[in-house]
Amino acid sequence: MWAIDLSPAPGYAAPGDPDPNTGQSIEDIRDQLDGLYREAEVATEAYNAANEKATEQEKRLTTLRKDLTRAEKRVKDLHALAGAAARTQYRGGDLAATGIQLLLGDHPESALDEASQARQAMRGLVNVSETQKTARQELSEQTEAATKELRKLKSSRADKAAAKQKIEKKIATAERIEAGLEEEQTRRLAQLERERAKEAEARWTASGGSSGGSAGKGRGKAQGPGGGTQVSGAAGKAVDFAMAQIGKPYVWGAVGPSSYDCSGLTSAAWAAAGHPIPRTSQAQWGGLTRVSLSSARPGDLIIYYNDATHVGMYIGGGQIVHAPRPGRSITTAPAASMPVLGVVRPGV
Fold first, then answer.
1. pLDDT at 211
2. Roughly what angle, to the nearest 10 degrees, separates helices 26-91 and 125-180?
3. Strand 301-304 and strand 340-345: pairing?
4. Is 275 a catalytic residue?
5. Rounded to whole angstroms, what are the CA distances from 17 to 29, 179, 234?
6. Is 310 an active-site residue?
7. Peptide linkage before 249 cis (omega within 30 of 0)
8. Which is the catalytic residue, given 79, 107, 275, 322?
9. pLDDT at position 121, please?
10. Are 203 and 179 spatial neighbours (Cβ–Cβ below 8 Å)?
């Protein structure tokens, strides 16, 4: 699906006067900072995805190891039972006392409810034992394969973490650039951001984006498209949760409660509403129901950039609540302030 490019076009405003010390205009500085933070977000989402895969594989491996332990015990017990049964038969004793029914208790269809059937079961005991050995071997092979896969995933996670650390160093450079701006430059940069926000609001309306009413902090219901249908229930709870996090800092990989990254905020909000969703923005884009831009309503998630590496929650009125980037806090922003890839709706 093609991205709906609602981002500012290059040169949409006259460039500011160059900085006499660096030769950079305010727009150049802003673009440099935006580029660095964009790299940071891409690296963050890549790390989050790798971490999710490794964590799931660890859980799967734990389950396989438990299953393998049970299978090994069953084979051992069957081996012991076969020996006891053979000795009982040799002595001409009653096979019902060998404990066959107890061992086969996990297989009700094979269990014996008549002592007279014990001899017949013993004749099949060798076949049962061989079947269990085969199952044990298969589990052993699955466990070995899962262990190898986990090693690969951990290696991938380590690579993504290293890439993230490199970006963090660039972020530190960006923050030094911001900190070094003179008061007049800072004022002009803030003005530039305000102008871009206004243009983004206009682009949202022009693109056919839903007004979607307004979902204020602490409200349990939010107006739907055009201020009509109300969004309540899970969507209202998700919006309320996200709005209640405003002011908390952006932290890489964080899912609360004291800090969040972009997809950490949206996934936590919908989990709080009783509808868990995928952890990363890319997984949210790939796994949730897509809806048109014009039908966006409060609680929907707006996915940004062609690689789906940023996400915000639509709150109505052409606005989103989101965790913007390192160094910033959770806030509201125009829904069209970044290139929109599409809209997804959890809970359907």
1. 60
2. 160
3. antiparallel
4. no
5. 12, 19, 49
6. yes
7. no
8. 322
9. 55
10. no
